[in-house]
Amino acid sequence: MPESPRRTLKLGAVLLGVGGPGQHHTWLDPQIPTDASVDVRWYIARAQEAEAAKFDHVFIVDSQFITPDSPNHYLSRLEPLTLLSAIAVHTEHIGLVGTLTTSYNEPFNVARRLASLDHISGGRAGWNVVTSGDAGTAGNYSRDAHFDYATRYGRALEHVRVAQGLWDSYEADALPRDRERREFLDPTKLHALHHTGEHFRVVGPLNLERTPQGQPVIFQAGDSEEGRDLGAAIADAIFTHAQTLEQAVAFRTELRERAAAKGRDPQNVLIVPGIHPIIAETDEEARARQDAALGARSFEKALAELGRPFGWHDFSQYDLDAPFPSVAAAGALSFRTQAEGITRLAIEKGWTLRQVVQHQLDAGRSPFVGSPLTVADEIQRWFEAGGFDGVNITVNAPGDFARFTDQVLPILRERGVVRSDYESTTLRGNLGLPVPENRYTAARPEEAKAASLVP
Amino acid sequence: MPESPRRTLKLGAVLLGVGGPGQHHTWLDPQIPTDASVDVRWYIARAQEAEAAKFDHVFIVDSQFITPDSPNHYLSRLEPLTLLSAIAVHTEHIGLVGTLTTSYNEPFNVARRLASLDHISGGRAGWNVVTSGDAGTAGNYSRDAHFDYATRYGRALEHVRVAQGLWDSYEADALPRDRERREFLDPTKLHALHHTGEHFRVVGPLNLERTPQGQPVIFQAGDSEEGRDLGAAIADAIFTHAQTLEQAVAFRTELRERAAAKGRDPQNVLIVPGIHPIIAETDEEARARQDAALGARSFEKALAELGRPFGWHDFSQYDLDAPFPSVAAAGALSFRTQAEGITRLAIEKGWTLRQVVQHQLDAGRSPFVGSPLTVADEIQRWFEAGGFDGVNITVNAPGDFARFTDQVLPILRERGVVRSDYESTTLRGNLGLPVPENRYTAARPEEAKAASLVP
Ligand SMILES: Cc1cc2nc3c(=O)[nH]c(=O)nc-3n(C[C@H](O)[C@H](O)[C@H](O)COP(=O)(O)O)c2cc1C
Ligand SMILES: Cc1cc2nc3c(=O)[nH]c(=O)nc-3n(C[C@H](O)[C@H](O)[C@H](O)COP(=O)(O)O)c2cc1C
């Protein structure tokens, strides 16, 4: 397929409250109110800062299960879409990406809430499709156990397909609302879905008209075979992690190939890892800041949180200096890929439990550390080498974020890596993604179609 | 029980988009944009007007099923809680009451979304608990048929009890967030629910701390035996209709008795019917306006919409001038009470189908029609006779609403029937309702409790 001219680097801001995953130390930062995770004004202010810096989107993670060992940010926080709707009416341009799980929601409700957000925001809604990694979530939804991987991801695929079908319920010109002709609805352009699948049966139609983006933008993350397959099938953009440039290029290449194998244009599948730039006046100072931040973390908390990918397995029961226990199976229904990865590495390296916890503490080490010039150079190098199409920056301390927007971004703008202003009113437009054609309009003869597409 | 001093009349504003139930003619009103039901700015402006008039709350109705015959407002509209969150951050005092069905939602998700709205709004969230009257809703949620009445209401009761349990997950002082002591959480004040019931099993805890209102305010509506019983058990406020003062007094008396029989203080169960005041300079003019509005309705549309309580039964198949067909059973899973009521009346009166449709068209006739003084007198008379504790005013045309706030309310304020300003920062406070004590705090010894209640 011929490559279209390369897009600019896309920018997302991960809005955590205080003390997100692997960042339980951040709640001690005097710049961040300790109750930020339930303070709508805090989120709105951060989103406005990201918008002033012309970011493409803000992103809200989610889970529906806690234990007292959960990271601080998880213990008490606002539901993502309720929060994003409040942010929507205090911003104008920035995309609003919320996490909703396909495992414990009905597709009719999900389709409706996202379409509502798309209308409220004038075309800025995005959906981070997840399947819920915490196996304990099942207990909050009348189930004995979480779905196994095949079911989790099978259900996710069908869930997204149903939502997409519901979003097409109304063609663009289905509601003429013509007072003179007394015609509110053109019933020939309102379509029931009549979906019958393995996991869902949904008649439709959705009780909400076509949204400004046609369909909200779909984001997804998942490292397993099943997770990558889902992303390649449905995602407009894929969230991931990136530890080295080689890994990043390999992941992006693989996902683009998978998408192409499914008949999709890989240009329309953006790879967007989360990165954590640490910026100071000099490289040395930045490295020292990173070391100080890593050093401030609590070993006990890290030991408890190590349990999460393993279905909140209690590692405090083991001898810290004995070889890492073989309990990967405990994570079979949770974050299986992560649990298996940690276990494999521990066995390969012959690590003790203490060494594994120490490794987890160090895993927060960022490849983007240094002066503004160093960080800008490194981001550009990864982008140009095909490591990513965009990056998600974690916004915790406003000061760290300001260093990125005020000192790194101007360099990347100057070099044409990042655009200098919004180019569209919708998230889809700013990401350079095509508007999906309504399936019923597409099926009409050409003349009827041309007429339908006017509004 | 000794009566505490009578509260002032409570005021709610029903925010419909355009052409709500029985009001399909309103979309022709040039004052109302035809796409109001999907325009967040329209809703925000109406809520701000209601707040300027010191209303206690705005209220958003809901359903999750449409046919091309549905009222215009139902065909395409925003999901209630997504909408209310946007309104929350553009208002300061007014309560935000959203409809969520217990039949097609999980209690964990409902509890979380309402608690999030309560945090975002600083204590102004309310939940209109419904069970979904449209039997066709089942088809959008992987079910062959809607729940029967006993199940619908049994599930509703358990659903609300689970939500209330989840709202108590954190005691008020469970999150000290004390940096010096490195104490974010006091785990002894975080409680799992471990609920196991007929319809739900929910372990908990909720991942959101106690809200500003302690618990969001619970509204409910339901005319059947089962519906009244649920209201008496769980509602802080009960929505209803009121056609005559005698009916209103009877309904309020009965519901208060039911609540008392369940051991509740009837003072804490407010009865709030929807009313539709029609105001003009003189009584004659107001009556003429009502006749004009009723005359503008379409017989065909009313015939189609008559089907709704009967599970969208198609009445166009019958002879208009033959006796009303005996099809009450078609409504057994829908709005049963309404379907039975219409059928009973038709048989009693010996009406034809045409006469029933005409009666439905006339049923919109309001008991509150006249000059501002006439309407104020009538509202005061009903209030003082015990017909209601508050009223829900349907806001469609901004002009009609302004006539009520600018011309009727000053008279009621002058007479002390309506308060002149907000008395609390929360909806619960403005309605004069007590804050429910957290069940775990309540179970503590007195000294521990006193300490807990400080924040
Ligand atoms: C950047 C990133 C963000 C994620 N955000 C969430 C989230 O908000 N909620 C969630 O339940 N899972 C989240 N996940 C987890 C995945 O969606 C997936 O459930 C998990 O990785 C386990 O599946 P896997 O084995 O396929 O990776 C995220 C993963 C990544 C890489
Ligand atoms: C004022 C009022 C408002 C209502 N709002 C809704 C609503 O928004 N959504 C809904 O599904 N039902 C709504 N209902 C219907 C009831 O909650 C109930 O489902 C319906 O009346 C059928 O049950 P019943 O036979 O017990 O009345 C409302 C009823 C009344 C009286």
Short description:
Chains A, B: InterPro entries: Diverse_substr_monoxygenases (IPR051260), Luciferase-like_dom (IPR011251), Luciferase-like_sf (IPR036661), NTA_MOA (IPR016215). Two copies of one chain form a homodimer. Chain A has 455 residues and is α/β, with parallel strands linked by helices.
Structure characterization notes:
2 copies of one chain form a homodimer. Helices cover 39% and strands 11% of the residues of chain A. The first copy, chain A, is built from 16 helices and 12 strands. Chain A has 2 domains: 342 residues, TIM Barrel (Alpha-Beta Barrel); 78 residues, no CATH class. Chain A has 455 residues and is an alpha/beta fold. Chain A has an 8-stranded parallel beta barrel, surrounded by 6 helices. The two termini of chain A are 32 Å apart. The model of chain A has no long low-confidence stretch (mean pLDDT 93). One flavin mononucleotide (FMN) binds next to helix 6, strand 8 and helix 10 of chain A. Chains A, B: This is LLM class flavin-dependent oxidoreductase. Chains A, B: InterPro entries: Diverse_substr_monoxygenases, Luciferase-like_dom, Luciferase-like_sf, NTA_MOA. Chains A, B: Belongs to the NtaA/SnaA/DszA monooxygenase family. Chains A, B: Keywords: Flavoprotein, FMN, Monooxygenase, Oxidoreductase.
